Amino acid sequence: MAALLSPEDLENHRVAHELVRLKLRLPLVNHLTGIHIKPLRRQWNRIHPNSPPNGRLRESVRAFISDSFSAAELAGFVAIYNRLAPGAENQVEPGMLLRAMTMHERIAHRELDINAAYFAVRDVRAKIVEWRRCGRCQTSFIYSPAAFHMRSCPFCALLS
Which InterPro entries would you find in this protein's record (predicted)? Predict the structure, then answer.
């Protein structure tokens, strides 16, 4: 007989299913939900026609920012996440990640790579990168002197 899951466990599995559906890398889903990688892999194979990506995870949001548009889009996502989950905790809440993804898609009318979104929130919350306010337009953005498109406000760059 199968063991009954608590409401919290059911919600955790629902969140994991949605994260897998959105193609969050399985080690990240495992980290966020605590669900073992094997059932996550089986779930991936049931949902997606291709195998889950292998290889090393990117280390930082810097790897996902290739131009001013991607920098602005990820800054917008972090702003949504921070609005939904204010506070200084430096861990990413999986349910809030899903809520922020839904809200971002409604506002932007386009999908965002959930892996990039995860790393953006994680890096800002863990202070791996800075969350700065532009002196010109007053919009917050992801700042890092180590990445060209993260050295100044991407919103101002897109306007010029």
Answer: FlhC
For residues 115 and 23, is the Cβ–Cβ distance under 8 A? yes
**What does the pLDDT average to over 2-22?**
90
Q: For residue 71, give every residue at least 6 positions away whose Cβ sits within 8 Å of its Cβ, in sequence order, or none.
A: 65, 141, 142, 149, 150, 154, 157
Phi-psi region of 57 (alpha: psi -120 to 50; beta: other; left: phi over 0): beta
Q: Decide: 26 and 41 in contact? Cβ < 8 Å.
A: yes
pLDDT at 1 over 70: no
What is the chain's mean pLDDT, rounded?
Answer: 94
- Alpha-carbon span 8 to 56, nearest angstrom: 31
Supply 30's token pair.
Answer: 């495992």
- Of the candidates 89, 157, 150, which has an alpha carbon nearest to the alpha carbon of residue 121? 89
In sign, the C-alpha dihedral spanning 6, 45, 34, 85 is negative
